[in-house]
Design a protein that fits this description.
single chain, 2 domains, 15 helices, elongated
């Protein structure tokens, strides 16, 4: 009997595929694409009565549970794996293939899959845990350490104590429990409220936010945009610095100019770098107002 390696596959990970599709809905909406293909793909392939939809529920069960004792975490994993074994593997694989094909028809697949997933390690560990249970008699003996490590990662996630700061970053518990269609509708409402709240942003800030959202499907574009914008902002701030009479204000502006260099560091753009550039844009706007008024 041939053994098989337990290796993670991003395009076969139902949890990751859903996260990418949900974020793509937001990106499409912000870009004025009213009928997002991602919504249709979710509705067609991730319905609760499909094998994919059922597996997604199992992923979400493990991803959304935290603060458990180790005993409860192990029990939850056992219950989830018990349900996972009941899925029709042939149908599940066919539906995953068709879902990825549907994504490929609407979006550049390489760009779609290249987006960074904040909890990638946890999703990958759940995938490996599921895969190891699917054909336990065919697992390569050299993979035991990798499988054990994946299981430990899942346990650590389930027993992790969520801080107040972390809990504020997650969706409300009431939203997590709703059907996916309702969650997607909620995403759209949030986007509409976002657009209303930030309608007074200048064009540079809007473009930066658009690039930030589009980072869902193009990880290089945002870094290239920021690296090109930072020198422009620094030049603009430096040029207008001489028109500022207040000594304290001049010192603060110099600090901003010096700190902008750190925004260009790293191959992956961090949220605080985007925030720093947004603040710099705002500062330029305010300085323009002051100097032109004078």
């Amino acid at each position: 009997m041939n053994s098989r390696r337990v290796q993670h596959s991003k395009h076969k990970n139902t949890g990751i595929l859903f996260e990418l599709l949900a974020r793509q809905v937001t990106a499409d909406t912000l870009n004025g694409r009213e009928n997002s293909p991602a919504i249709q793909i979710i509705r067609e392939y991730l319905r609760p009565n499909t094998e994919l939809g059922k597996e997604l529920v199992l992923y979400r069960t493990l991803m959304e549970a935290t603060n458990l004792s180790e005993a409860r975490a192990l029990k939850l994993i056992d219950l989830v794996l018990e349900q996972r074994r009941k899925l029709n593997t042939k149908k599940l694989n066919e539906q995953k293939y068709n879902l990825v094909k549907a994504v490929k028809d609407k979006y550049p697949l390489k760009d779609f899959l290249s987006s960074k997933i904040p909890q990638y390690k946890e999703y990958a560990s759940i995938y490996k845990t599921f895969l190891s249970e699917q054909h336990p008699d065919k697992i390569d003996v050299t993979d035991i350490s990798s499988i054990a490590s994946a299981r430990f990662t899942v346990v650590e996630h389930l027993t992790h104590k969520t801080s107040n700061a972390e809990s504020r970053k997650t969706l409300p518990e009431s939203l997590k429990g709703q059907q996916e269609d309702l969650r997607l509708l909620t995403y759209k409402i949030l986007v509409d409220k976002f657009n209303e709240k930030y309608k007074n942003l200048n064009e540079q800030q809007k473009v930066l936010l658009r690039e930030y959202i589009n980072n869902v499907s193009n990880t290089n574009s945002l870094r290239e945009h920021i690296n090109a914008e930072v020198p422009k902002v620094k030049r603009e701030l430096s040029r207008r610095l001489n028109a500022i009479d207040d000594k304290v204000t001049r010192i603060k502006i110099m600090e901003v100019i010096n700190q902008l260099d750190s925004v260009k560091k790293g191959s992956t753009v961090r949220d605080n770098q985007v925030t720093a550039l947004m603040i710099a844009y705002q500062l330029v706007k305010e300085i323009r107002f002051i100097t032109e008024e004078e």
